[in-house]
Amino acid sequence: MTDARDRIATHVHEDPGVHFNAVVRATDLAPGQVQHHAHRLVSAGDLAVERVSGRTHYFPPEYDDWERGVVALARRETARDALSYLLDAGPSRPAAVAEGVGVARSTLEHHLDALTARDVVEKRRDAHNRVTLALVRPEATVRLLADVDPSVADRFVDRFERLLDDFLD
Protein backbone atom coordinates (compact mmCIF):
# COMPACT_ATOMS: atom_id res chain seq x y z
CA MET A 1 0.00 0.00 0.00
CA THR A 2 1.31 3.48 -0.81
CA ASP A 3 2.05 6.10 1.84
CA ALA A 4 -1.01 8.13 0.74
CA ARG A 5 -3.28 5.09 1.05
CA ASP A 6 -1.83 4.24 4.44
CA ARG A 7 -2.52 7.78 5.66
CA ILE A 8 -6.09 7.72 4.36
CA ALA A 9 -6.84 4.25 5.76
CA THR A 10 -5.30 5.11 9.14
CA HIS A 11 -7.32 8.30 9.39
CA VAL A 12 -10.57 6.53 8.50
CA HIS A 13 -9.93 3.77 11.04
CA GLU A 14 -9.24 6.41 13.73
CA ASP A 15 -12.28 8.50 12.80
CA PRO A 16 -14.98 6.21 11.30
CA GLY A 17 -17.54 8.03 9.18
CA VAL A 18 -15.22 10.90 8.38
CA HIS A 19 -16.36 12.76 5.29
CA PHE A 20 -14.30 13.33 2.18
CA ASN A 21 -13.32 16.96 2.85
CA ALA A 22 -12.15 16.11 6.36
CA VAL A 23 -9.94 13.36 4.93
CA VAL A 24 -8.45 15.90 2.53
CA ARG A 25 -7.73 18.33 5.38
CA ALA A 26 -6.36 15.68 7.75
CA THR A 27 -4.02 14.03 5.24
CA ASP A 28 -2.75 17.18 3.49
CA LEU A 29 -3.37 15.49 0.14
CA ALA A 30 -5.01 17.09 -2.86
CA PRO A 31 -8.71 16.26 -3.32
CA GLY A 32 -7.93 14.34 -6.53
CA GLN A 33 -5.35 12.25 -4.71
CA VAL A 34 -7.75 11.42 -1.89
CA GLN A 35 -10.46 10.57 -4.39
CA HIS A 36 -8.13 8.28 -6.36
CA HIS A 37 -6.64 6.49 -3.36
CA ALA A 38 -9.94 6.23 -1.48
CA HIS A 39 -11.52 4.68 -4.57
CA ARG A 40 -8.69 2.16 -4.72
CA LEU A 41 -9.08 1.38 -1.00
CA VAL A 42 -12.84 0.88 -1.40
CA SER A 43 -12.32 -1.33 -4.48
CA ALA A 44 -9.82 -3.45 -2.56
CA GLY A 45 -12.23 -3.84 0.36
CA ASP A 46 -9.99 -1.90 2.75
CA LEU A 47 -12.58 0.87 3.24
CA ALA A 48 -16.34 1.18 2.91
CA VAL A 49 -18.10 4.26 1.58
CA GLU A 50 -21.53 5.68 2.39
CA ARG A 51 -23.17 8.69 0.73
CA VAL A 52 -25.56 10.43 3.09
CA SER A 53 -27.20 13.85 2.72
CA GLY A 54 -24.89 14.91 -0.09
CA ARG A 55 -21.68 13.87 1.69
CA THR A 56 -19.36 10.98 1.12
CA HIS A 57 -18.31 9.25 4.34
CA TYR A 58 -15.59 6.62 4.72
CA PHE A 59 -15.57 3.70 7.16
CA PRO A 60 -13.51 0.69 8.13
CA PRO A 61 -14.92 -2.29 6.19
CA GLU A 62 -16.35 -4.01 9.28
CA TYR A 63 -19.16 -1.43 9.58
CA ASP A 64 -22.42 -2.70 8.08
CA ASP A 65 -24.91 -0.57 6.12
CA TRP A 66 -27.00 0.30 9.18
CA GLU A 67 -23.98 1.24 11.29
CA ARG A 68 -22.57 3.42 8.51
CA GLY A 69 -25.90 5.24 8.25
CA VAL A 70 -26.09 5.87 12.00
CA VAL A 71 -22.56 7.25 12.24
CA ALA A 72 -22.86 9.38 9.10
CA LEU A 73 -26.15 10.90 10.26
CA ALA A 74 -24.92 11.40 13.83
CA ARG A 75 -22.12 13.59 12.52
CA ARG A 76 -24.80 16.28 12.21
CA GLU A 77 -25.24 17.99 15.57
CA THR A 78 -29.03 18.18 15.44
CA ALA A 79 -29.44 14.51 14.51
CA ARG A 80 -26.92 13.52 17.20
CA ASP A 81 -28.70 15.66 19.79
CA ALA A 82 -32.06 14.10 18.85
CA LEU A 83 -30.57 10.62 19.25
CA SER A 84 -29.09 11.58 22.61
CA TYR A 85 -32.42 13.00 23.73
CA LEU A 86 -34.22 9.77 22.82
CA LEU A 87 -31.54 7.73 24.59
CA ASP A 88 -32.00 9.79 27.76
CA ALA A 89 -35.77 10.29 27.70
CA GLY A 90 -36.92 7.17 25.89
CA PRO A 91 -39.79 7.25 23.38
CA SER A 92 -40.98 10.85 23.09
CA ARG A 93 -43.31 13.11 21.18
CA PRO A 94 -41.66 15.12 18.35
CA ALA A 95 -42.50 18.45 20.00
CA ALA A 96 -40.71 17.37 23.19
CA VAL A 97 -37.65 16.28 21.23
CA ALA A 98 -37.55 19.56 19.27
CA GLU A 99 -37.86 21.56 22.48
CA GLY A 100 -35.26 19.42 24.26
CA VAL A 101 -32.81 19.77 21.39
CA GLY A 102 -33.56 23.47 20.97
CA VAL A 103 -34.60 23.48 17.32
CA ALA A 104 -37.72 24.26 15.35
CA ARG A 105 -40.01 21.33 14.68
CA SER A 106 -39.35 21.68 10.92
CA THR A 107 -35.60 21.37 11.50
CA LEU A 108 -36.13 18.28 13.61
CA GLU A 109 -38.39 16.79 10.91
CA HIS A 110 -35.67 17.34 8.32
CA HIS A 111 -33.27 15.23 10.38
CA LEU A 112 -35.96 12.70 11.31
CA ASP A 113 -36.63 12.03 7.63
CA ALA A 114 -33.09 10.70 7.24
CA LEU A 115 -33.08 8.92 10.61
CA THR A 116 -36.34 7.12 9.88
CA ALA A 117 -35.30 6.26 6.31
CA ARG A 118 -32.22 4.53 7.76
CA ASP A 119 -34.25 2.71 10.46
CA VAL A 120 -32.44 4.49 13.27
CA VAL A 121 -35.61 6.12 14.64
CA GLU A 122 -39.15 4.95 14.15
CA LYS A 123 -42.36 6.92 14.28
CA ARG A 124 -44.99 5.03 16.23
CA ARG A 125 -48.62 6.08 15.93
CA ASP A 126 -51.18 5.51 18.66
CA ALA A 127 -54.92 4.97 18.27
CA HIS A 128 -55.41 8.74 17.92
CA ASN A 129 -52.71 8.95 15.21
CA ARG A 130 -50.31 10.81 17.54
CA VAL A 131 -46.64 10.21 16.79
CA THR A 132 -44.07 9.00 19.28
CA LEU A 133 -40.41 8.77 18.31
CA ALA A 134 -38.32 5.81 19.45
CA LEU A 135 -34.89 4.41 18.70
CA VAL A 136 -35.00 1.17 16.72
CA ARG A 137 -31.76 -0.25 18.20
CA PRO A 138 -30.86 1.80 21.30
CA GLU A 139 -27.94 -0.35 22.51
CA ALA A 140 -26.25 -0.32 19.12
CA THR A 141 -26.91 3.41 18.77
CA VAL A 142 -25.13 4.11 22.08
CA ARG A 143 -22.09 2.15 20.91
CA LEU A 144 -21.96 3.96 17.57
CA LEU A 145 -22.38 7.45 19.01
CA ALA A 146 -19.04 6.93 20.74
CA ASP A 147 -17.43 6.87 17.25
CA VAL A 148 -18.76 10.30 16.30
CA ASP A 149 -16.57 13.37 16.51
CA PRO A 150 -18.11 16.01 14.25
CA SER A 151 -15.85 18.37 12.39
CA VAL A 152 -15.78 22.10 12.92
CA ALA A 153 -17.46 22.56 9.53
CA ASP A 154 -20.29 20.22 10.54
CA ARG A 155 -20.75 22.17 13.77
CA PHE A 156 -20.91 25.50 11.90
CA VAL A 157 -23.62 24.23 9.55
CA ASP A 158 -25.64 22.93 12.48
CA ARG A 159 -25.21 26.12 14.49
CA PHE A 160 -26.26 28.17 11.46
CA GLU A 161 -29.47 26.11 11.21
CA ARG A 162 -30.17 26.80 14.88
CA LEU A 163 -29.45 30.50 14.46
CA LEU A 164 -31.97 30.64 11.61
CA ASP A 165 -34.51 28.80 13.77
CA ASP A 166 -34.05 31.35 16.55
CA PHE A 167 -34.27 34.25 14.11
CA LEU A 168 -37.49 32.94 12.52
CA ASP A 169 -39.21 32.29 15.86
**H/E order of the elements?**
HEHHEEHHHHEEHH
Major pleated sheet? 3 strands, antiparallel
Straight-line N-to-C gap = 53 Å
- Cα shape: elongated
> How much helical structure, as a percent, in the residues?
55-70%
Mean pLDDT: 89
**By helix and strand content, what is the structural category?**
alpha+beta
Strand content: 5-15%
Query: What's the number of helices?
Result: 9
- Record the strand order, biggest sheet: 1-3-2
Query: In terms of per-residue confidence, which ranges show pLDDT below 50 for 5 or more consecutive residues?
Result: none
Gyration radius, in Å: 17 Å
Q: How many beta-strand segments?
A: 5
Comma- or semicolon-separated keywords:
169 residues; alpha+beta; three-stranded antiparallel β-sheet; 9 helices; 5 strands; 60% helix; elongated
Describe this structure in words.
This protein is of the alpha+beta class. The protein is built from 9 helices and 5 strands, in the order αβααββααααββαα. It has helices spanning 3-14, 20-27, 31-43, 65-74, 77-89, 94-101, 105-117, 138-145, 152-168; strands spanning 18-19, 48-52, 55-59, 121-125, 131-135. The model has no long low-confidence stretch (mean pLDDT 89). This is ArsR family transcriptional regulator. Pfam families: HTH_HVO_0163_N (PF24266). InterPro entries: HTH_HVO_0163_N, WH-like_DNA-bd_sf, WH_DNA-bd_sf. Residues 2-70 form the HVO-0163 N-terminal HTH domain.
